[in-house]
Amino acid sequence: MAKKQTPNILIPPDQVQVKVAEWQSRNEPVLLGEGQEPLFLELVAELLGKRPLTSKKYQHTMRTYARQGLPWLSKSNVIRLYEELCEAGWAEFDPDVRIHLQMKPIRSQAGVTVVTVLTKPYPCPGKCIFCPTDVRMPKSYLHDEPGAQRAERHGFDPYAQTAARIRALEQIGHPAEKIELLILGGTWSSYRRDYQEWFVKRCLDAMNGEDSETLVEAQEKNAVGPRRNVGLVVETRQDHVDVDELRWLRYLGVTKVQVGIQSLDERVLALNNRGHDVQSTRDAFRLLRLGGFKIHGHWMANLLGATPESDVADFGKIWADTAVRPDELKLYPCMLVENAELYDYWQRGEYQPYDEETLTELLVACKVQVPRYVRLNRVIRDFPTTNVVAGNKKANLRQIALNRMAERGLQCNCIRCREVRRHKVTREDVQLRIETYETDATTEHFLSFETDDDKLAGFLRLSLPHKDAPHPLPELENHAMIREVHVYGPALNLGEGSSGEAQHMGLGSELIHKAKEMARDAGYGRIAVISAIGTREYYAKYHNFQMDGLYMTADLMVNGEL
Ligand code: SF4
After folding, report:
1. How far is the CA of 260 from the centre of ligand 1 (A)?
2. Domains identified in the chain and CATH numbers
3. Helix axes 193-208, 215-224, angle to 10 degrees
């Protein structure tokens, strides 16, 4: 009998390096070496000359340039690097590059365009042992993170960063009329307030395309301008949140606050030198929630003193403790980098990062616990892996964990995993669903439009403050609060339609109407909304809200009508 032939699946030795490079290129952002920019632009020009650009031709061209020292680049990395170089002034942007490489324009899946900017390097009041320090960067950011490099190129100037990002996005056909501004860098509240005010004003100036004298003037222009700020996010520490800070953040136009929970175990917090206790997180979250802010928590696994078992239990406390329960969460397993104090613990043998298998199982155990009202935004911090000294280096661990869950018939119920994205849905495809949960200070209603197969087309967070406790912002007594309205669909320019996409079926209006009805039925006389500057017109025009101090509010009893 003829011997059965085993298919040859071995990679020839001379191909191993190329395959590894290809894999890395697909899984992590690749950076050019010093002085490689001209060679890279030559590669782009050569790729442009190959029509049609078959996969074979792409590989062949890439191989030629890899031999000359360029890293192996996937098409998406070529496009990203090309856009970054154009932004930095190395070349005139040619939209044909993206089209030619057949990458679809990036469309925002969540309906808005995110513009990320970094504040200037500045010390942080925190002394957390796991947090990297790089004097060239704001605390906790590494010099070679792509976003950080972009900010550095612009001298951390808010105007230059925002303008360049908008320009780059618009050049590649990405609408930038609805912008969520994400301000990153250490602890926002520890920067001087005059710097904070100037920083936000300059970002708005860039969106407005013209300078203003004051922040308020810039906000007024933005409220009716061509590129509206529909969300403003900052990151701060829980021990910097008090009533005065709530008012200040609102004055700036902030709508969402990122706070590092990191752990709900006092011992772990102390061992890692967080400098605050669990109660501090609870207090900050209560104030933020009553102030209508969206709360975006960060939680870390594998901190000093934690074990995989204690981590799973600690993760459970985030949802079991009614005073915590954030709206969004980033789950960051601690990453060991050389310029953090934790590195010394590791060298002394007092700290050990989990291996990939342990981490994958931990992610599975955490993901199955996430409630339906939470968006799990990110799993794994996107440090370039070259900085990670030991432990997991895989940036795609979330996908690995999801695959494992699927094998076991488990699923993640978080918002991100259920977003309808670009699927076409009609009004008949979705039903209103209301999920109610308690916090220490409010009753939260999560109103959502969902399809039969559990896809989420939009949602609203209605917060009803408990009436038996005084409100930290007295002007909001007897007010229900809309903390978030989010309807999915690609980011379309104002006035542009796209049939079948969730943003344009009036789902947002239906959700707001329902929220008003529920608030009125629960006995609230008025309702407030933490509207971003650029959504004010919408709430005023379509839902009878008016500016009323730091919030927009509406009467729930006008002529018996909502
Ligand atoms: S508070 Fe945040 S930025 Fe500051 S040291 Fe701690 S982790 Fe780093």
Report:
1. 8
2. 14-100 (no CATH), 107-236 (no CATH), 257-418 (3.30.750.200), 427-555 (3.40.630.30)
3. 30
